[in-house]
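Lab manual, section 2.4: Encoding a predicted structure.

Procedure: take the sequence of the chain (257 residues), apply the prediction step described in section 2.3, and record the output as structure tokens. A sample record is shown.
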Amino acid sequence: MSRDFVVSLHDVSPATAEASRRWLSIIESLGIRASLLVVPGPWRGRDIATSGAFCDWLYQASLRGHEIVQHGWCHAVVRGDVSQRRRALGDLVGRGCQEFWELDEETARTHLVLGREALRQCGFRADGFVAPAWLMSGGTMAALSSLGYRWTTTHLRVVPVAGRSRWMPVLSQRPGSGVSSVVARLTGFAAGMLISLRRPFRIAVHPDDIREAELRHAIVGMCRSAASAGYTARTYGELVGVPVSGRRGEARAVEEL
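Recorded output:
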């Protein structure tokens, strides 16, 4: 059984640029190439279209082997026609960022195209998509397929849009909550169990994790434990056979932004 793990840096945007840079420096110090999940649209008052310096930083990161991935459009909940039970579940898990959880296919398609075009203008091609909080509607999955995306993910799987999914659970911290310390210990324990069973897994890093020492140590500890057990860090594109996902496309050069 393949011993792979993925480190994904979520919520990468101009609004989180400093924390994202700090995390990428830590990740690189561990010898890991990460999948950078970029919020392309307006979030926390910023967007990539108005930040040439941020786009240049992303480009330099891609040259070092990191993967650029589309992570929603606005990273904020958008209400749709769903049951109260589904809405309550989304609110509990997503905490206000479940952008694609309630969307019909047409609305999901609009958000996907907006995000993909913003990335294109920044100089990147979006082959893969990860929904905020990993929460997607059936309409979102249909839109991903019709728009030609190659892969996506859920909490438990890496999912080629056309092909067989791979079981690969994600371990994520809970920064800024009253249970962050408990979650840090639980994720460390879960990583240890998965490693002992030689199972693949993913480590999700969020910019806000940098603020709490216990969360930083938990993430670094999981990475080191995986490496010492012979695991190989891979990007999502490598796992699904899409090399250099997110490389610069036909958009204008980053240096011209």
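Check your result against the sample. The helical segments are 17-29, 52-63, 84-94, 105-122, 138-146, 180-196, 213-228, 236-240.
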